[in-house]
């Protein structure tokens, strides 16, 4: 017997994506772009984005999910895993995929109120098919927790752009190498590049807010911000019960960290150079190393002269 057709395949087909984006494009008023160059940019960005979107979904399906057995669409509750650090990753990724999409659409010539919908929702559009593919794999399942985090990341971007015309509250990311990665390299990777992506123990996620918006003092520079962050330590498996059962690994106390720190909003610094400003914008999602205060139920309050 032949294989049954995957009912979600049309979401992974680049031609479907191109048609969908072109429908959005040509249903707009002609006044969206001020000249032919902007029309060409919008068309190029739309086609390029659609091809990238469809192509990445096909590659992911063929080179990752194809190696695992398929199943009927199902759900999986993983909300208790990794002290929810994986959910922070979904939130962060969805926000910045949308942030990139928004800025690309603005560059192409769309007005901000349309760019935020056509570009700012890229994060949710990119992440949701991955959840669907998880739901069709017997190894995983569609996670409502992941999808909620994806939605909240997109919502933070869209809501701020509508309310303030700017991104006031910015998610940030930092990573510090840990002793835990070496204990389970099959899960966390065996080099620093894999560790950054896979080792939830070393990841920290932050929300940064301009200090002079809280204390309106003129001598406080606009780039100086405060950050509230979250992290977790002691995790060698996603669930505590699995970690306790694995006698091959040493025992660690699992605990969550709450962090307070200062930060630098690199995108607010004007270098008087277009290339310099672009470079600072490109790395503005990274949390700047600075003095920090940590609190956890395991260690109480702890001050760090420099924390990343």
Explained architecture:
The chain contains eleven helices and six strands. Strands 1-2-3-4-5-6 form a six-stranded antiparallel β-sheet. By secondary structure, the protein is an alpha+beta fold.
Write a compact overview of the structure shown.
With 308 residues, the chain is of the alpha+beta class. Helices cover 44% and strands 16% of the residues.
**How many helical stretches?**
11
Give the DSSP E fraction (strand runs of 2 or more residues): 15-25%
What separation lies between the terminal Cα atoms?
Answer: 56 Å
Q: What is the averaged pLDDT score?
A: 84
Strand order of the largest sheet: 1-2-3-4-5-6
Question: Top keywords for this entry?
Answer:
single chain, 308 residues, alpha+beta, 11 helices, 6 strands, globular, disordered N terminus
């Amino acid at each position: 017997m032949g294989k049954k057709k995957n009912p979600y395949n049309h979401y992974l087909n680049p031609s479907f994506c191109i048609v969908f984006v072109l429908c959005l494009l040509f249903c707009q008023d002609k006044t969206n772009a001020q000249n032919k160059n902007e029309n060409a940019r919008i068309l190029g960005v739309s086609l390029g984005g659609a091809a990238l979107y469809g192509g990445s979904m096909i590659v992911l399906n063929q080179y990752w999910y194809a190696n695992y057995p398929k199943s009927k669409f199902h759900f999986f509750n993983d909300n208790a895993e990794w002290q929810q650090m994986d959910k922070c990753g979904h939130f962060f990724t969805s926000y910045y995929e949308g942030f990139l999409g928004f800025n690309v659409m603005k560059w192409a010539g769309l007005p901000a109120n349309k760019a935020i919908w056509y570009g700012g929702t890229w994060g949710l559009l990119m992440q949701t098919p991955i959840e669907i593919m998880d739901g069709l794999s017997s190894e995983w399942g569609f996670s409502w927790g992941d999808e909620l985090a994806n939605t909240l990341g997109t919502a933070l971007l869209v809501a701020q752009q509508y309310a303030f015309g700017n991104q006031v509250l910015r998610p940030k990311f930092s990573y510090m190498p840990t002793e835990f990665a070496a204990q389970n390299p099959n899960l966390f990777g065996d080099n620093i590049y894999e560790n950054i992506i896979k080792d939830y123990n070393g990841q920290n996620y932050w929300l940064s807010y301009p200090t002079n918006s809280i204390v309106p003092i003129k001598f406080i520079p606009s780039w100086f911000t405060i950050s509230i962050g979250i992290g977790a330590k002691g995790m060698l498996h996603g669930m505590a019960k699995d970690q306790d059962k694995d006698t091959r690994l040493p025992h660690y106390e699992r605990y969550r960290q709450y962090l307070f720190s200062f930060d630098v909003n690199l995108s607010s610094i004007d270098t008087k150079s277009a290339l310099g400003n672009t470079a600072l914008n490109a790395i503005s999602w990274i949390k700047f190393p600075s003095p920090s205060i940590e609190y956890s139920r395991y260690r109480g309050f702890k001050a760090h002269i420099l924390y990343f």
